[in-house]
Design a protein that fits this description.
Shape: globular
Radius of gyration: 20 Å
Largest sheet: 7 strands, mixed
Number of helices: 15
CATH superfamily of the domain at 191-343: NAD(P)-binding Rossmann-like Domain
Number of strands: 12
Structural class: alpha/beta
CATH topology of the domain at 191-343: Rossmann fold
Strand content: 15-25%
CATH architecture of the domain at 191-343: 3-Layer(aba) Sandwich
Distance between the termini: 20 Å
Order of helices and strands: HHEEEHEHEHHEHEEHEHEHEHEHHHH
Strand order of the largest sheet: 9-8-7-6-10-11-12
Helix content: 40-55%
Bound molecules: nicotinamide-adenine-dinucleotide
Length: 418
Amino acid sequence: MMQAAPGGFLETVLAQFDQAANRLNLDPALRAVLSSTKRELTVNFPVRMDDGSVRIFTGHRVQHSQARGPAKGGIRYHPSVTLDEARALATLMTWKCAVTRLPFGGAKGAVACDPSKLSVGEIERLTRRFAAELEPIVGPDSDIPAPDLGTGAREMAWIMDTYSMHRGYSVPAVVTGKPIEIGGSEGRAEATGHGVALCVAEIARRRGLGWPGARVAVQGFGNVGGVTARRLAAMGCKVIAVSDVSGGVFRSDGLNLTSLARHVQEHGRVAEFPGSERIDNPALLALDCDVLVPAALEHQIVEKNADQVRAKVIVEGANGPLDEAADRVMADRGIVVVPDILANAGGVTVSYFEWVQDRDSYFWGESEVYDRLDKILLRAFDDVWRMAETHRTTLREAALLLAIDRVAAAVRLRGLYP
Ligand code: NAD
C-alpha cells in the first residue's frame, strides 16, 4: 500500500479514499488493492542541451489501476514533481474515469523540469527520450498518456511520432490531446475548460446563484483556467479576476477575456493587462465572488487560508487544489465544492472520444463531440448530486463513493490471478 509523506498531496488522496472505503465497508483485500498503485516506472535519462552539455532528467509513470480498462492520464512537466505527486494524480484519474463511467483506469506521468527554461529543441529531445523510456508500459491497450500541466498538443505529437517510429507504422491511439491533423479530436483542447464551465453553470442552477451574471475568479490561465474563463465570460458571467504564475489581474465589473487572451499571447502572462488592477494569487483566492475556480496547482487552498475564502462555490479546475483540512472548513462553512474528479473530467472524456475515433479511423464533428461530452458530464453530475442528497455527504464524498464502488466492483468481478 502507498505510504504518504505527512501534509502532501498523496496523503490527502489516501485520506479521501479511506473515508469512502469506511463508508462503503470495503473489505481489507479490496482496500489494499485500491490503495496501492499497480505499476510504477522511474527513469533517469540523459538529454543533450543546446550548449552541447548533457543533463540527466528524472521522470515517472504511475499506473494506479487497470481494473476498468487501460490506464489513462496526463504527463506533467514541472520543476517540483515527485513520485508521490504522480501516485496521487494517477489515483485521482482512476476515480475520475469511474465517476464518468469511461472504460479506463488511472495513470499519471511527470518529468521534473521547468519547460520555461528549456528551448523548443531541448523540450523535444526530452519528450522523445521520455517517450522511448515509457514504451515498455504505454500503448493503446495498456496506458494512454495525454497533456497536463506544462505539456500540450505539441508534446503529444512528439510522443505519438516517437512511439510510431519504433513500431514502423502510425499509432495515433497511443496518446490523446494530439493536434487534429494527426488524429486529435475536435474539442479536445477546450474540453477540460468546457466541462469546468458546464459544472459552474450546473451548480449555479442547482444552488440558485445568480445566473448568468455570476461573479467568478479563476486561478491559473493555462489550458484549463484560460478556457474556463473564456467560456464563462461567453456565457454571461463576470470574470472579475484571473491569475497565472506571475500574479493576477482584477476588474470589478468583469475583464474582457478576448483582449486578455490577446495580451497573454503577446506578453506571455496576464500581468499588466491594460484597464485592470494587480492582484496576487493569495488575494485572488480570498476575493468576494460567487464562484472560485482554482485551475493551477494542487494544495492552493489549505488550512491556513481556507477561512479567507469568500466565494459561495468552489469548482475545482485543477486536480487537488484543496487539502483535506480546507475541505472540512468549506463543508463547515457551507461552501459547496464541486470536486476535481467531476469538474475537470471533460478533458479525459474527450480523450476517450479521441481514442475511440483513432481506433475506428473515423472522426466526428465538433457538435457531436460536445453533445456527447455534455451528456456524459451532466449524467455524472446528476449521479453525484443524487448520491450526495441520499447519503447527506459533500459532493466530493459522493463522487468518491460512486467511483470507488465502481472500481471495487470491477476488481471483485475480475478476481485475483492466479
Ligand atoms: P497549464 O500548464 O496549461 O496551465 C497552468 C496555469 O497555472 C498557467 O497559467 C500557470 O502560469 C499557472 N500557474 C502555475 N503555477 C502557479 C501558481 N503557483 N500560482 C498561480 N498560477 C500558477 O496546465 P493545465 O493543463 O491548465 O493544468 C492546470 C491544472 O488542471 C492541473 O492541476 C492539471 O492537473 C489539471 N487538469 C488539466 C487537464 C488538461 O486537460 N490539461 C485536465 C484535467 C485536470
